[in-house]
Batch of 2 targets.
Target 1
Amino acid sequence: MKVGTAALTVDAAGMRAQNSSLLLNMIWRERQISRAEIARRTELSPSTVSAIVADLEHSGLVRSIGAGVSRGGRRPTLIGFRDDAFSIIGVEMGATHVTVVLTDLRGRVRTHRTASQQVRNDPEGTLKTVRTLVQECLDAERVPRRSVVGLGVAAPSPVHPSSPGKMSPLILPAWRGYDVREALSTTFDLPVFVDNDANLGALSECYWGAGIGGEDLTYIKLATGIGSGHIIHGDVYRGAGGTAGEIGHIAVDSAGPPCLCGLRGCLVTLIGSGALVERARELMGTKGRKAPTVREIVEGARAGDPAARQIIDGLGQYLGVAVAGLLNLLNPAIVVLGGEISSVGDLLLDPLRASVRKRALSTSMAETRIVTSALGDKSIAVGAATLVLQAALRDRTLFPLQHVGKSA
Amino acid sequence: MKVGTAALTVDAAGMRAQNSSLLLNMIWRERQISRAEIARRTELSPSTVSAIVADLEHSGLVRSIGAGVSRGGRRPTLIGFRDDAFSIIGVEMGATHVTVVLTDLRGRVRTHRTASQQVRNDPEGTLKTVRTLVQECLDAERVPRRSVVGLGVAAPSPVHPSSPGKMSPLILPAWRGYDVREALSTTFDLPVFVDNDANLGALSECYWGAGIGGEDLTYIKLATGIGSGHIIHGDVYRGAGGTAGEIGHIAVDSAGPPCLCGLRGCLVTLIGSGALVERARELMGTKGRKAPTVREIVEGARAGDPAARQIIDGLGQYLGVAVAGLLNLLNPAIVVLGGEISSVGDLLLDPLRASVRKRALSTSMAETRIVTSALGDKSIAVGAATLVLQAALRDRTLFPLQHVGKSA
DNA sequence: CTGGTTTCTTCGCAGTGCGAACGAAGTTTT
DNA sequence: AAAACTTCGTTCGCACTGCGAAGAAACCAG
């Protein structure tokens, strides 16, 4: 049951595919590397490496980029990954907006579009908005459909592994009957990958953020809702039912306020944006009559406003309870905090770390770094694109084949 | 970083090794299967399957076991896994005892030995006891060293992935400088695998217990300490520092008693054996002057003693807090409770499930079964042996080669 | 008993990676 | 400046693998 289920058989072609992917990943990772160096690291013979590199070059994924420094003999020819060989589309469906990015194969955003959109109750309108924005991105960069690897989608809902594309009927009841994957796949005739937004935030951090080089990471998204995603052994971990990472409904304070989910004292009722804003209204000299925004709390805290600081302190303390449990249970290498409020940095990290230290084993603490995200507001959409990239780097056949001559 | 690190290159021999392992696993799993059926399922050609099966047969791992039922033509020759081809040794180092089992390749215990042993403060004596018991098991079954695949060890300490064999200096300070793997490997000249006891309990459940057929499971060991182990995608998950699963020190009640670890209200201070016994002394009509044992609590609860029932209820409630957090964070398919106290079954499961229901998202709950272990008191030692089995089924070369003729 | 079906093996073929030999291109030594 | 050495990359024959077609063996149905 556990060993060989997923493993596929190998024939001669499969062997080539495996080694080919291995080399492709190495070249992607190293950005530039010589054939000789690849042969040394992979323990493949030089002749095999040359043959595979020729393959990859012919498919347009890599190219020669001049000579490297000599190690006492002939200078090596450096091979580089062609980040611009293909494009990827990443879509973030937030609570009240849709963001679409078009990235290259290095996670760089080449174009992006955002539109306000009530996602929760308007599947039809949301899909239409997504289609429009995707098309705009493609048109803006004059990217032909055939040079797009695929389309990644971040959804504000858990995604069940057995039916990617369908939203949770409990979180997004209005989406019953809709299948995002199906819908977009038929529209654009491209492979579509869907996952939860926090999971994709985690993937984004693992590839482009605080988790670079690591394989185990937990990302916590602090926003209207509180979600988290785990990267385990380099892969998004979804759990048995796709709801792994639902940190927002961990009961932190059994005497706390009731939550929409029916429980009491959920983390989200204490540190969700709504709770923070509410608390800010109580504490801060809310000049006018309007409730302050998260942005104002951030700015206030940075400016030294004691009320804002107090709110952030409280956030750190509550969050620490959940993070401590997380460290003991999962012992991730890194915990990354994302979401607008995380931009206060140490103002949040200090009370959080103190709170965790009071509640987690020192051994779990020792190995875990807790940091705030340095990626921008498009990190979720980029994470969606990264999901496609990850799949394609593992299975080269996902890259659309295009016969490339000698031209650049 | 995340994709190709672990992947190894493949050559012709590696291709054969992969396919060979795949077949070996299939035969192990199915117990009996024909070449034709293997070819259909794996999509390998009949000729290839025959060749590989001949290989496996020659190495003594499988054998023909007569004809199956016809599907309208020639009757298939069924191939069976030879569970008795090799033996595996499993060692459990508990808090106050050492248990050694000798199993076949199906996790069946052929011989076992147990001895009282203070493990915590006596590394030298513990290792000596282990050596003695292992040798006794080998002698009892007249098993030659060369037919033993390896030796698995369950340790009452987290094991850091980078130094398997070394105990945590915080949990077992007396073991500083000792390396269990090294020590036993040189004594017996066998491969040695070491892991945390709760992790191996989890593995045991996944292979032989409640988790059969699944790939994601969490095991919780209720004993002097409270530990847990996660099986993720069929593998033990150890976390970045090897301390994943330290559920015992999750803070459940911030107003609770202080714990040895320096924190307050740890789960273990509330539901560890010590706490249960202490509470029993308060509540139960402790006939004599001695403190009751866990066994007596179990028997009392079964017999209907209200005090014992109350203790179990409390256990279920506290444990529910931690399990709810676990479900939200990891969303495992199954949670298995082990340890002596778990033998009360529903008496514990009912209050536990109720407690969880009050604290976990219904979506997380829906996909998760919570059960008590049906494996016996040797499940941890068997889990240690299973770790070796798992490794060998993946890498056939771990099976000692022995030239087998046509004999049975 | 005959025709059809299924199982398993045999044998030649195509594809893959390897290794030795070689040429190409630098560096270091003389 | 020339020779000797080192490294890089390619070429080519070899060994091994899995495949597919063909065939033999074993069985069932009529």
Note: The two ends of chain B are 48 Å apart (CA to CA).
Target 2
Amino acid sequence: MTSPTGRQPTLDEVAKLAGVSRSAASRAINNAAHVSAANRLAVERAVRELGYVPNVTAQALARQKVGAVVLAVSDHNEELFGDPFFGRIIAGVTAALEDTDLDLKLLLCHPERGHDRVRRMLRPPRADGIMVMALRGDDPLQRMVEKSGLPTVYGGLPLHGRPEWFVDVDNRGGGRVAAEHLVSLGRRRIATIAGPADTHVAVARLDGFADALSVAQLDHTLVEHADFTREGGAAAMERLLQREPGLDAVSVASDNMAAGALQTLLQHGRRVPEDVAVVGFDDLPIGHLTQPSLTTIQQPIRSLGYEMARVLLAVVDGEKPSPLLLPTRLVVRESAPAPVSLAVS
Amino acid sequence: MTSPTGRQPTLDEVAKLAGVSRSAASRAINNAAHVSAANRLAVERAVRELGYVPNVTAQALARQKVGAVVLAVSDHNEELFGDPFFGRIIAGVTAALEDTDLDLKLLLCHPERGHDRVRRMLRPPRADGIMVMALRGDDPLQRMVEKSGLPTVYGGLPLHGRPEWFVDVDNRGGGRVAAEHLVSLGRRRIATIAGPADTHVAVARLDGFADALSVAQLDHTLVEHADFTREGGAAAMERLLQREPGLDAVSVASDNMAAGALQTLLQHGRRVPEDVAVVGFDDLPIGHLTQPSLTTIQQPIRSLGYEMARVLLAVVDGEKPSPLLLPTRLVVRESAPAPVSLAVS
DNA sequence: CCAGGGACTGGAAGCGCTCCCGGTTTCTGG
DNA sequence: CCAGAAACCGGGAGCGCTTCCAGTCCCTGG
């Protein structure tokens, strides 16, 4: 277990101890062909005896591969970080990387600052591939990533363009289901608080909303945008009430905004869900805390991270995986209960 | 801007173009001494012309340094990730690394699984230093980190032992201030919901609680432990009420648990703060949402990340920085308002 | 019994950079 | 004007690994 020198044992030492050439030792360790069973065994023994672990840096240099992938997150307002999103994404990514011997590097990019750092990071050989998340309208990060030529997987589509590889949540479907639920409750004057207009996720959820209301032949122009924060949601709700005091339902594009909207509604004396039904999006823990608790669209955050990494691994290995759209699920709680019509009958 | 070959330009090409030796070019680029102004200029021009960026892998191999530090988080129950903690820590760490050209690697360690991966990661030359967070009782991670011999900074003290380098929040002070606030409100039957007994943060906050009550000559044995979750907090509150129906205040070691405790209190017909005053810990967004809003102890999460990285950088550079204890701050909201006695007087 | 093919083997040439070191040039002060 | 120091320069030996390739050896089928 102790290397002769104070440092880590090297391949040479392993080879010497095993009585073979360095080449043979290398082949044995990477279990390639052209190694006799005897030698392979000898090498394995030597490895164990010395506690040898390949020097990844040297491997990287020789193989012209890095042994790491980066997760790049565009960090506007730490918005993503106010939520538990981030941690779950990372948990998923980590799980997918578990048995690959690839390291995960993290790259937080402020849209305005630190571009040099980002550019450096993206230039090979700093990583073998990259996952990008949470892009805004025309985030400089997108251009930089494209220029880098690195295998790239998008977590959530960018506003413009359709990258070759991505994993996204079915935001449009989720938006539709949310609105459909409100329609099924018999609501007729349905509004929505959408996310920032320069994000694909907001646009998609809004499209889904419009889909559902069109099918139901309802007006779907009662839209206000906000920035995914609680305060933003509260303000947007204020504007909606001003535009249409008689609205009887609102589909909100995030739980945080929904929490804000709830507060505004209560302040204005509306009862939820009696007067106004509310459905959120995300299924954050916060949804249990609001009064009333929040009906919402659950999205598989952890899976998003997991699948992103899986797709990236495939791409890095030269495969052509197909893009993925992960399903959402309606979670019914108090703010927009199940339709009674279906209850017994 | 285009390298002659399809690949990235190398130092040799730069040197050739600048008409100097590779050594000189290297010195110029790392702006070391012993380069004439003229040559330095020529090299700089060549670098710009070729768009040269040093190959970090090769540098790493030659310098016997990696160019990356790791942030290791012990991942029990994704507890840390339910909160916005994680993102803020990372934002802080990233800020501190901003102009160092060091990459940040992330290591999520399940206490039971994935040890091999962790061990590999910790063995040089996979990183130049490591930051460890959120250790439990005797987390295997701690032993592994210690064995690795890598420069290590602890974010939050471990339960056992006192590492040479760490950054922590003044949890004991925070616990004390919380309790003092309740005392100053005239409360006499003060309970506490502490965190898991096998974490240093829980123990420290509890010690602070005991400090304050001892000084005030009040009983400080009304203690229940929970796991930092809302559900856990609710259950613990239940137990406390059973033990002491007449309690008039409770200091809770996290906002999440406090949110749960509030629910339990309301369910049992207690008015907050009239019957029972409540103070939390953390200052998470959730504290604005509860009914009533939550008085709490704010802790500088982002700074914790920032300082951790700063200390690590210093250690890696061979310095001997002193450990840091970051201050907390009482944030007074509705669940435990400011003492009236001091209001006008 | 022998040619030919396959499975092995180890030497050596990298991967792209750092850094030591002996040698040359230039500058300074006496 | 000269010795000695200081500044500068480039050759070359690594860092630890992979991988090409020319060479051995053994085994088969004709």
Note: The longest helix of chain B spans residues 200-215.
